[in-house]
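Summary for the steering committee. The consortium agreed at its last meeting that each partner would contribute one worked example illustrating the joint modelling workflow. Our contribution is presented below. We chose a case with several input lines so that the handling of multiple components could be demonstrated. No manual editing was applied between input and output; the record is shown as generated.
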Amino acid sequence: MTLEEFYNQVGGSLDEAMARLYKEDLIKKYLGMFLQDDSYTKLGEAVAAKDWREVFATSHNLKGMAANLELKNLFEASSLLCEDVRHGDPTGDMDAMYAAVKTEYENAVAAIKQVI
Amino acid sequence: MSNLPLTKDQGKASRKVLVVDDAFMNRVMLEDMLSDSYDVEAVEDGSDALERLEDHPLDYGIVLLDLNMPKVSGFAVLEKMTEWELIDKIPVIVITGDESYETEMHALALGATDFVRKPFDARVVSHRVKNTFDLFAYKHNLEDLVAEQTKDLRKSNKLLREQADRIQQFNENTIDLLGMVVEYRHTESGQHVQRVKAYTELLCKCIKENYPEYGLTDDDVFRIAQASVLHDLGKIAIPDSVLLKPGRLTDDEYNQMKNHTIYGYELVSQIKGAWDDDFATIVRQICRHHHERYDGKGYPDGLAGEDIPIAAQAVSVADVYDALVTDRVYKAAYTPEVAYNMIQNNECGVFSPKLMKCLELVRPEFEEIVRNASFDDDGLHSLLLGS
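What follows is the complete predicted structure of the assembly.
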């Protein structure tokens, strides 16, 4: 899979990513590191524990990484979740929001595994 | 401007960048973006950052700081840096995602210099860091420059002060010389004026310390003592036949002799430009009034009590005391004890009770001067007269 195909699959733009990070090598390096990051795992635990502060912290990290890596779909899903718990208890449908993050995360991870 | 010399000396910006972010990927990305131009040290929590900043604050030229961190937040780091007075020395660029306006304002209020936003743009990050870095380096250089110039200024000030002191010393020597010239002309030696100066200084110091109503300062004490050597300056206008007459003076001669106070006053009144006004005033007061008496029966003006300037009062006690403890052509020296009692008993004039109290207080120092004085010092005097 080329990086261009990759970005078509995760909802981002290679041009955007290249404009910020310059080198395909670097983009791939960071995508590889994304697989090592445990923010997503921690987010799952925090949601299960209804620890909303931790949900905020972990979704915030996830959102930041997604933004940096131009993983647009994941970025949008995690942003929704993150904003919802920014000031404490969730106001929206937590299950649905978390499910959306889960889908996009798994989608991104599957694509990353093919591109690096 | 682009490459200001940066050294790692104390107080100067260093090139190390401290990245503080709990997300591993952010640390790696920022390190990648900056490591070409800077040494980058990356830590994962505010607590690690504070540890480094506390131990080696001057190693870091800039801090890139995440706000949301699990143990110690970016806000806490900013607060600590303010407390440690580092916030003006080390610029902080805050790493933010889409933080609220309030959050960013809060960071700025705590001393943050700038922001880098996610997603990171390599060029934006490196420019922002470089600009901030250079700005602070420039600021530090300016501060160093100011410090250096301040040092130079201090040095020139010191030089000026030394020159002023030297001029002051010359001036004092000249005044002393003038006083001594008068002394050499008649029977006393030049040492009389120097002792009067010492006695006057002791008395004035005592007045300054015990009688604040006279408003004397250290400077006044010094000036009065200096001026005291000129008290008999008017004697240069007295004819030899009177001044050097070995026997008793006639009434007419005595009246001529008394005029040395007025002659002295007139003489120093004509001196222009040599002394400042305050000093000239003190000299005039001393010349004219050092033979006044507290009861108003002195000369030339018959001033009484505190109408007599304090400088003249002090000199007159000093003058009488030295006359008593010294051999004169018309009398032998009295012992310091006898001299002291004669003055306290108003046998040689009438003085202010305050001055008499001071005389009592400085009596030991007066007697020390008498003990140390060499009264056999008419060698110079003879030399001057060519005998």
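The two ends of chain A are 8 Å apart (CA to CA). Chain A touches chain B at residues 19-22, 26, 30, 33-34, 36-37, 39, 57, 60-61, 63-65, 67-70, 79 (CB under 8 Å).
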